[in-house]
From TrEMBL:
Keywords for this protein: Signal
Residues in the signal sequence: 1-20
Residue ranges constituting the DUF7381 domain according to the UniProt record: 20-139, 303-399
InterPro entries: CAP_sf, DUF7381
Pfam families: DUF7381 (PF24100)
Keyword Amino-acid biosynthesis: no
Name this polypeptide is given: SCP domain-containing protein
Lineage: Eukaryota, Metazoa, Ecdysozoa, Nematoda, Chromadorea
Length: 568
């Protein structure tokens, strides 16, 4: 009997440990005048409660039926809308359940479904997941580890260290620091680390998104690795600090590093530092760090990446831009900090060459027009040249090559029309503005100049000026890029036949003469009105009194520039 009781207790414990958590799917209820109730979820409409339950169960087949809830978040009564609140009006996804709505008072372990950018996300404890199983495991870990509140017993005896830890982590245990997919842990560890750095008078550090991404990738790699931790750490980058710690005690890791660093300072002759790169982490030269974390069973992998010297910076930059020869790679020094004083060096154009054998200092580059600069970080890294932004280094280089080739051409005045007003207007609008000028900002400047020139022509014919329309520009720019890349060319031709869109090709250095050509066509159309209407469609629209808004999009296609005009 005794053994049976023990066995039953073990089974009960296992079931409690690995039980599922409730999933709440938000639906909208509409109560009609005849009392009939219909439901909607993600543009799907259901005529009855039974039909709704069947549809939701089919959509979430990986969730146990008895843990699937339907949360009626909004109720429509004709023109009235009632927000039911976060814990009211739940339905069980069980066809045999004939009961009405019920309320849930404790939402601590409830997983909610939300739609973000047309994708389903599972939200719990301020963290988001792409599937139910990940969110369920996350809540199971909270149930297991948030009970442990004895971290203070493992904090070092150093008074400053203990006070700092207590100030940062008071009443913040596993549930607390695992919020926002452990970003709360990252933020508090950084805050604690900065207080230790200031205590040593080594200056505070700032979080780097690029270092955060690299640290996160390394943490995930180590979490998947089946070999011993030390074997993997031997191959880590020179600026990485790695630790493996029991999950509920992750909030004492920086204090452990602080204790170890303090011991190495107090007993430099006898104490051998255990953690690789710990000295560089607390060094005065370390100004930027990135934090990464990943779960590995009952343990947590914590990784810190830091820039501790110029060599580490060069090594990190070379690793990120492996596709570039080092002779073409420069580091731009934006500012120099001297304590609390910051000296901006943007106007000085200070650069550092990324070459292993280059021991020289910074160099000054007077002409930065033909340099590709990076903007953003991580996956959102963009490449800028001639005030335009591109998603790849190759495209930015192509823009610079085009500037070199086509900006030399200065004979545009030879191809403009003979009409005196047209020539004067063209000179007034485009004087000194050639390819480099009008291709700025991904040809946005070309479009604005077109509108400026067009309004001068329209004024001559007693027509009201047209205005720039941002929404039209977005589509015109997209259409020009699609045609230039050979995508949907036929589609755009068909669309232009039935809509207010027109596309044309112009020789790249002579793109700034296109509006003058349309003006000349308009003049000839007045003389010969029976010309081909398809070819003169854009001309008639640009000089029509009904046209009030226009936008021009442009994109490079070999030796030509694709120009798309939209109007309304």
């Amino acid at each position: 009997m005794k053994w049976l009781l023990i066995t039953l207790l073990i089974i009960l414990y296992v079931f409690q440990t690995y039980e599922s958590n409730y999933l709440a799917v938000p639906v909208i209820s509409t109560i009609h005048r005849n009392g009939r109730e219909t439901f909607a979820f993600q543009n799907n409409h259901y005529e009855s409660r039974e039909e709704l339950i069947v549809g939701i169960k089919n959509m979430f087949q990986d969730v146990p039926k008895n843990y699937l809830l339907l949360h009626v978040s909004l109720v429509h009564f004709g023109n009235r809308i009632n927000n039911t609140g976060p814990n009211n009006r739940f339905l069980r996804a069980d066809l045999n359940d004939n009961f009405g709505y019920f309320n849930i008072h404790d939402l601590s372990f409830l997983i909610r479904v939300v739609v973000i950018r047309r994708k389903l996300k599972y939200i719990c404890n301020y963290s988001s997941f792409s599937d139910y199983q990940s969110a369920n495991n996350y809540l199971d870990n909270i149930k297991k580890y948030d009970k442990m509140k004895s971290q203070y017993e493992l904090v070092g005896k150093d008074v400053h260290g203990w006070q700092t830890w207590y100030l940062i982590w008071k009443k913040c245990y596993y549930r607390c620091f695992s919020r926002y997919n452990f970003r709360e842990l990252s933020s508090r560890l950084e805050n604690e680390f900065n207080k230790y750095k200031i205590y040593f008078r080594n200056g505070a550090v700032t979080m780097s998104f690029t270092l955060h991404i690299s640290a996160k990738k390394l943490a995930k790699t180590l979490a998947k690795c089946k070999n011993k931790m030390c074997e993997k750490c031997a191959n880590c980058a020179g600026s990485a600090v790695v630790a493996k710690i029991s999950a509920p005690f992750a909030n004492i890791q920086v204090n452990k590093w602080y204790k170890e660093y303090l011991a190495s300072k107090q007993y430099p002759q006898t104490y051998k530092i255990k953690t690789k790169n710990l000295q560089s982490l607390f060094s005065q030269q370390t100004t930027k760090v990135g934090f990464g974390v990943a779960m590995k069973g009952k343990y947590m992998i914590i990784v810190y990446h830091c820039y501790s010297s110029r060599n580490d910076l060069v090594r990190a930059v070379k690793k990120q831009f492996q596709f570039l020869p080092t002779t073409f790679l420069l580091i731009h020094l934006l500012s120099i900090s001297h304590g609390i004083m910051v000296n901006s060096s943007i106007l000085e154009n200070k650069y550092y060459r990324v070459k292993l054998n280059d021991n020289s200092g910074y160099i000054n580059i007077k002409n930065t027009d033909l340099i590709v600069e990076t903007s953003g970080s991580g996956k959102k890294l963009m490449y800028s040249s001639n005030d335009g932004y591109y998603d790849s280094y190759k495209k930015a280089c192509e823009n610079i090559d085009n500037v070199r080739k086509y900006d030399r051409v200065r004979s545009q005045f030879k191809v403009i029309g003979k009409d005196m007003l047209g020539r004067e207007t063209w000179y007034l609008t485009w004087y000194g503005c050639y390819y480099k000028c009008f291709s700025r900002n991904n040809f946005f400047f070309l479009g604005t100049k077109f509108i400026e020139e067009l309004n001068i022509y329209r004024k001559e014919f007693s027509l009201n000026p047209v205005t720039f329309n941002p929404s039209l520009y977005n589509y015109a720019s997209f259409a020009a890029k699609s045609i230039a890349e050979g995508k949907n060319k036929v589609v755009h031709r068909v669309v232009s036949t039935f809509s207010n869109e027109a596309a044309t090709f112009a020789s790249a250095p002579f793109a700034n003469t296109q509006m003058n050509k349309w003006y000349e066509q308009f003049l000839s159309l007045k003389v010969m009105p029976k010309r081909n209407l398809k070819k003169t469609k854009i001309v008639q629209a640009l000089f029509s009194r009904y046209t009030t808004k226009v936008a021009f999009g442009a994109a490079q296609k070999g030796k030509f520039v694709v120009i798309v005009a939209l109007y309304k």
